[in-house]
Each structure stands twice: as structure tokens, then as C-alpha cells.
Write a structure and sequence with these properties.
three-stranded antiparallel β-sheet; 26% helix; 4 helices; NE0471 N-terminal domain-like; single chain; 101 residues
């Protein structure tokens, strides 16, 4: 995959009030994602303590992470911020969608 085909990677992330994240990506796109619906569910029980949620960082491979316990796909969060579809972000998916239309 050529570098120009790679999806943007997060370059900065900050925890906001209400279990929201502000994320900035390498292409300049930035936005807020509300994760409050995940709090207390399964592996996200850790976030019941808001101080744990505030420990967000950019982890291995660009994942949005909270230590070794939780990580979220940066591509999925990018799609939520931009409102784009996966085939808009990944050219190979776009080619497959056209072939099967």
C-alpha cells in the first residue's frame, strides 16, 4: 500500500468532560467523539473512575489507548468524526464496492 493510500493517523488526543475525546489526525482533521455510551460496559468498566478515562494516549500502531487494558481503532474513530464511510477512507474497499455494485 502506498503511503498516500494509508489512512490518517492520530497525532494528538485529549480527554474532555462527559467521556468525550478530542482527536487530531495527521491530515489536519480534528473533532470530538462521545464515548459515554461505553462507560461501565465490559472492558470499559475501568472508565467508571473518570480519572482512568483521562489517561488516554496514542498507543501502538496509532490506537487510541488506555494503558494495556483498552484500545480503540483510530480508523473507526476517524469515520465517526468525519461521517465518512469505510470505502471513502480505504481505496481498496472503494474498488470492491464498485465491482460488486
Amino acid at each position: 500500500m502506498r503511503k498516500s493510500e494509508l489512512p490518517p493517523k492520530p497525532v494528538e488526543v485529549k480527554a474532555l468532560e462527559g467521556y468525550c475525546l478530542w482527536i487530531k489526525y495527521s491530515d489536519g482533521i480534528e473533532g470530538v467523539v462521545d464515548l459515554s455510551d461505553l462507560v461501565g460496559k465490559g472492558g470499559f468498566a475501568l472508565w467508571k473512575d473518570y480519572r482512568e478515562f483521562q489517561k488516554v494516549c496514542i498507543g501502538a500502531g496509532g490506537a487510541i489507548a488506555w494503558g494495556e487494558e483498552i484500545d480503540l481503532c483510530p480508523d473507526a474513530l476517524y469515520l465517526r468524526i468525519t461521517g465518512k464511510k469505510p470505502e471513502d477512507l480505504f481505496s481498496k474497499l472503494r474498488e470492491l464496492a464498485v465491482q460488486h455494485a
